[in-house]
Design goal:
heterodimer; A: about 300 residues; mainly alpha; two-stranded antiparallel sheet; 2 strands; globular; B: alpha/beta; Rossmann fold; six-stranded mixed sheet; 10 helices; 10 strands
């Protein structure tokens, strides 16, 4: 494996994690509550992809590419996001944030067990975006799926940036997240904005599920793993910071992929005593979580600090 | 002639405490009216009840003769109530431009024109158009909060303590804007503790004391009223 390959795999995973983390932060900012079902919604996106691929299979006997499924999954998951807000957020919005924490944990369990009942507990793989296999680019062999994931995730991240930074709807969503009562007093329908935030965040989670579940498979119990990744990305990057969430996602991906892949790149490292142990997923996880603790102690506001400060 | 904004026997309760007790008042189009009273007299509660952020226990608020009872906060704003809260509450992480744009109900071109009008009215904001609101000084934030409320094209502007925390000269400047806004045809209800300046820029005033109107009349006459002294110094 070359450095380029390793980097491309890392970036692909980081970009998909970034989609997960961004949606998590939006809902966090808009509701001041943690949506603990967010990881299960990534998993649900993977299974929604499988289900849609199954339904469309008779129309496309050669296999339905992920790129065709993507818009359908995004729309379906946006609808799921609205349901999440109606079931787990709006009935509890005037209670302390812990109520939503619990209700979304419950919803996540329902989603995980629902997926087991419908699809079984075995790992399943979603179709590739276009094709699986490899491609030779200037003498470097790279995975087609990894490249496609990078392109699609980059477009989705750019799209959400344009929406939030440069459109009137985006301004209304941000204003609602920053001061809900004030936004309402300016004529912004804040309930609708919060419901839309859930829809957009869940659509992105669903897209991430589609992107991740080809190479990494999907099982009904995946939710917790994704949830923790999102939570950590957001904690590393700075609670509430969008840029921080993306940075955190890439940092996590580099521990997932890059560190365990290093000996393949630098054979001298593989020859070190205990290299198998040192450059393993297990040790990478330990290092990542020690780093997380260090960041919490040394920079409690995360690497990107608080996006907003207040004047006295 | 119906008043632009009219409160009929409006009461607000926080639990067992009556914060506003049967307050009636009127503000006409193009009129600036002061709402005076000491801290805790109920000025902010009254404005919050008008915009709907605080539920009223009894009484009716009407805008151009239309009762607002039961209407959500954002509907009241859309009907023509502009709200500039105590403490400014600009959207801290958004730019000055975005703070203004988000309040506009108009499509892009009319929105840009409206922002240009606010920048002409408050040139200090034009210089900071792409700064984040939290980076502004207190006076600039106050200008932004007023300009943002004007972006909603209100028929009635509710201004809560715009001079609070500002240097005297800035406070004077802020209150001078009140006169200009009313002159443009907007009804202004100005809650203030800065009595002298508030009376100087308004035509009429109401004095609140522990949730009741204890005095009202032309601002010029109230300047010498003993009720003002009592409301601020007495019980």
């Amino acid at each position: 494996m070359s450095l380029i390959q390793l980097l491309i795999n890392t970036v692909a995973l980081g970009a998909a994690y970034a989609l997960v983390a961004l949606g998590f932060v939006w809902v966090l900012n808009a509701t001041a509550a943690v949506n603990f079902s967010h990881g299960d919604l990534v998993m649900a996106g993977g299974f929604a992809t499988l289900a849609l691929a199954g339904w469309l299979a008779p129309l496309m006997p050669g296999g339905v590419p992920g790129l065709v499924l993507l818009p359908l999954v995004v729309i379906a998951m946006a609808g799921v996001g609205l349901l999440v807000s109606l079931l787990a957020y709006f009935p509890l919005k005037d209670r302390p944030p812990v109520a939503v924490f619990i209700s979304t944990i419950a919803l996540g369990i329902v989603l995980a067990n629902g997926a087991t009942a419908l699809f079984g507990a075995e790992p399943r793989a979603t179709p590739p975006l276009l094709q699986s296999g490899f491609l030779e680019l200037g003498g470097v062999i790279v995975g087609r799926q990894a490249l496609a994931v990078i392109v699609v995730a980059a477009l989705l991240i750019a799209g959400q940036h344009v929406l939030f930074a440069h459109t009137q709807l985006g301004r209304k969503l941000r204003a609602t997240a920053q001061d809900r009562a004030m936004a309402a007093a300016l004529g912004i329908p804040v309930t609708l904005m919060i419901a839309l935030t859930f829809a957009l965040a869940t659509a992105l989670a669903g897209a991430a599920g589609l992107l991740l579940s080809h190479s990494f498979f999907v099982t009904p119990s995946d939710g917790l793993n994704y949830m923790i990744k999102a939570y950590i990305a957001v904690t590393i990057g700075g609670w509430g910071s969008l840029l921080g969430a993306v940075a955190g996602a890439f940092l996590i991906a580099s521990f997932d992929v890059f560190l365990p892949g290093l000996p393949a790149l630098v054979p001298a490292l593989g020859a070190l005593p205990g290299a198998d142990w040192l450059f393993s997923q297990t040790v990478a996880s330990i290092v990542l979580y020690v780093l997380l603790l260090a960041i919490l102690v040394l920079r409690p506001h995360g690497l990107f600090g608080e996006a907003v400060q207040r004047r006295a | 002639m119906t008043a632009r904004l009219r409160l009929d026997a409006l009461s607000v309760c926080y639990g067992a405490i009556t914060a506003l007790d049967g307050v009636s008042l009127e503000v006409g189009a193009g009129e600036a009216v002061a709402l005076l009273g000491a801290n805790g007299a109920g000025k902010s509660t009254l404005l919050n009840a008008v915009i709907g952020l605080v539920p009223s226990a009894a009484g009716v608020v009407s805008l151009d003769g239309v009762a607002l009872t039961g209407r959500a906060v954002h509907r009241r704003a859309a009907l023509g109530l502009g709200y500039c809260p105590e403490g400014r509450r600009v959207f801290p992480g958004m730019t000055v431009y975005d703070n203004l744009a988000v309040a506009s109900p108009r499509a892009k071109r009319a929105r840009e024109e409206a922002i240009a009008r606010q920048f002409a009215l408050f040139p200090a904001l034009a210089d900071k158009a792409y700064d984040r609101a939290w980076q502004l000084s207190g006076g600039q934030q106050q200008m932004l909060a007023i300009a943002r409320a004007l972006m909603t094209e209100p028929r009635v502007l509710l201004l809560d303590e715009p001079s609070l925390g500002l240097a005297p000269l800035l406070a004077q400047e802020m209150l001078a804007h009140v006169r200009a806004i009313a002159a443009s045809g907007t009804a202004v209800l100005l809650a203030e503790q800065n009595v002298a300046t508030a009376l100087a820029v308004t035509q009429r005033a109401y004095v609140l004391q522990v949730g009741r109107v204890v005095e009202s009349g032309p601002s010029a006459a109230l300047r010498t009223s003993p009720a003002i002294q009592a409301a601020f110094l007495g019980a």
